[in-house]
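Batch manifest, entry 17 of 40.
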Amino acid sequence: MKISVFIISLAFIATAASAQTIPLYTFPEFEARFLKSGSKKYVLNYWATWCKPCIKELPFFQAAYTDNKDPEIEFILVSLDEPNMVNTKIPNLLKKNNISIPCVLLNDSHYNDWIPKVSTEWSGAIPATQIVFGPKNVFVEKSFYSSDELIRFINESYQIIYKK
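Output type: structure tokens
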């Protein structure tokens, strides 16, 4: 009996330890940290657990994240889920799909105020992806259908950003 309780306890500790901690950001905090970051380079993927196309493309982002050779580029999954999912549904979905990309939750219900600040091109639909290099960025509101397509988009975006 004691051994089985110990094994169950170890399994719980291992599961809890491997679950990702997901910080919550208001839009002003998010904007300061990721959109106006100076010289930082980000690949931001806006998604939610209820969005099937978002879930379908997560492995492509994971592949790009894993293959990334530029230590200056940070991949961030930006969840638009409800804040009560930050300790349950979001980390469980990421773990189930072997996604290790850092994730944050954008906890700001004033969508009409902040969506145009992310991009004037954004209708608010997801999935959406943004490549940020300081004040310069490229935004696309679409699904990716392969990691090669996503990597091409990232590379082309940096070419555009560096030319601006």
